[in-house]
Specification:
This protein is mainly α. 68% of the residues lie in helices and 0% in strands.
Length: 188
């Protein structure tokens, strides 16, 4: 049997739903969920250092389920990062570890290891180059240019490598960077 036209059920369907503003607690929960998803993306890209920081902050979240999930991922991040602490004896070992940290999204920590490697091998152009990339990733233009210049002085090939290195993308608009990579040839 069909309900008569004009019944309450057909009137409800025709009435648009009234949207209410989310409460501050709902907004905070949405923001926490977005941070959690960002942490998962970093985790899935093996950037455990960055993901760990996000998950650490979320463990104090008032939403118990979210805090528990964050603790699980935090523990996994800590385990994966703990495994990556090999015995570093040579400049090359320390350099490789620093580059690995940079690739995992921890340029500050990478820089510390790269500086140690540089103390052991002060003429290693590739270490200067790697430090320049960590500075560039952290948007320290002056530091990036200083170390890149030294890397190029030690080995001209670093100039050509830097021309296509995505780590220097935020320096492309700086005329000093352009001049360093594409110096004018003197007229003869």
């Amino acid at each position: 049997m069909k309900p008569p036209t004009g019944s309450a059920s057909s009137k409800q369907a025709a009435t648009p739903a009234v949207r209410r503003k989310p409460t501050p607690a709902e907004i905070a929960h949405q923001n926490s969920m977005a941070r959690f998803e960002n942490g998962l993306q970093l985790f899935n890209r093996n950037q455990f250092g960055k993901a760990r920081g996000i998950f650490e902050r979320l463990t104090e979240n008032p939403a118990r389920e979210l805090a528990e999930r964050a603790r699980v991922y935090l523990n996994i991040c800590q385990q994966r990062l703990a495994r990556a602490a090999p015995q570093l004896k040579t400049a090359e070992d320390i350099y490789n570890h620093g580059v690995g940290l940079a690739n995992q999204g921890s340029p500050e920590e990478a820089e510390q290891y790269l500086r140690k490697a540089l103390k052991l091998a002060p003429q290693a152009d590739y270490i200067y180059y790697a430090i320049a990339t960590t500075y560039a990733l952290r948007e320290n233009v002056e530091g990036a240019l200083e170390y890149l210049l030294k890397a190029i002085e030690l080995n001209e090939r670093n100039r050509y490598q830097a021309q296509n290195d995505a780590d220097f993308a935020n320096l492309l608009e700086d005329p000093r960077f352009t001049e360093l990579l594409y110096p004018e040839k003197p007229l003869t």
